[in-house]
Amino acid sequence: MGDLRQVLRLALPALPVLAAEPLYLLVDTAVVGHLGAMELGALGVGAIVLAQLSTQLTFLSYGTTARAARLHGAGRRADAVAEGIQATWLALAVGIVIIGVGQLLAGPIARALAGPGDLADAATGWLRIALLGVPMILVTLAGNGWMRGVQDTGRPLRYVLAGNATSAVLCPFLVHGLDWGLDGSAVANVAGQLLAGALFLRALLSERVERKPHLTIMRAQLVLGRDLILRSLAFQACFVSAAAVAARTSVGAVGAHQVVLQLWTFLALVLDSLAIAAQALVGAALGAGDDKRAKVLARKLTGYGLVFGAALGIVFAALAGPLPRAFTTDSVVLQEIPHAWWFFVALQPIAGVVFALDGVLLGAGDARFLRTATLASAIVGFLPLVWISHVLGWGLVGIWTGLSLFMVIRLATILVRVRAGRWAVVGAST
């Protein structure tokens, strides 16, 4: 019971932090969905691009947690916080570059995903506004990273909820109250991101550590980040391909895919609360030189993930009828949703185990293996099926069959790796 209490102590505050952004996107989807199928589809195209940008740079969070947790476990808290300082410098620099490049490429990217026309034009407008919040999205990732590493999950909870609550209140007011339409959704998104990022910056500045950039530390973060970036590229290739195929299938299909994908993302991050606890506890155990405890935690987290995922699957199976109508009343979209819904439900127990053990290996700094396993799962499992679906007209059934195969392959590879135990390398550095 002691280990379960420790996991819950870290996972429960992390859960609303992880769920806050996808929960806001669910609110955003519901608000925009009542504008019509075209606006909902445009949000789907724009949101997947923005999500992939932040996903590509998750090393600012996960990599920083892995490095900070080991230092914290070794009794070096100031050095753990210093990881956050350097990650924040990286976040600001990369975020500014993304704003500039994104303004130039927003149109071509939207047209590449949705084809030329009104859908791509609407997605371009949303994306150009939403990109202005990217630096603070990345600052928030870095802030969550170092705070999780030192096992402080209270402040990230308050900061992220404040930002997302601001967005959730502004979204319906701007979209419908002021009649800004789809642009109001993007402005609300940016406002919340600016507030959350500012709170994380204030917390970092209150720490008594050196604030100057250090290229040596940033270079070490980028070495770990390289493998996490390549891993993220595999996810990007999968989900961008899925969005592109859905957009080319029909307006109803892309709208339905947006609804189910946002629910998938929401539950993935809910399940990832176990991974956050795993990262902090496993990293600290290995930093303190206790590889046996790290392996015990891995076994227990496998069971916790399976139970948690199965429970979520049961809940969302029961909600198959009423829940989709909360997001849209468009009959064309509602007719398409069941083609993806039951895949989404059935995958939850698998996802629970995969995400929990991802956290174990990320806490151990085993990013190279995760990179290779994820790339292989995408190349062998997801990508062939999703593009065959486009050619043969399988629609959402083909897309979500590909996602299912992707998750099953990831499950098999990660279980083999954890059982072998070679990931449990002790020491204060990854």
TrEMBL record:
Keyword Transmembrane helix: yes
Gene Ontology MF annotations: antiporter activity; xenobiotic transmembrane transporter activity
Location within or outside the cell: Membrane
TM spans (from-to): 43-63, 84-106, 126-147, 159-178, 184-205, 228-251, 263-289, 301-320, 340-362, 369-388, 394-416
Domain of life: Bacteria
Keywords associated with the record: Membrane, Transmembrane, Transmembrane helix
Recorded GO CC terms: plasma membrane
Bilayer topology term: Multi-pass membrane protein
Keyword NAD annotated: no
One Pfam family per UniProt: MatE
Entry similarity comment: Belongs to the multi antimicrobial extrusion (MATE) (TC 2.A.66.1) family.
Protein name per its UniProtKB record: Putative efflux protein, MATE family
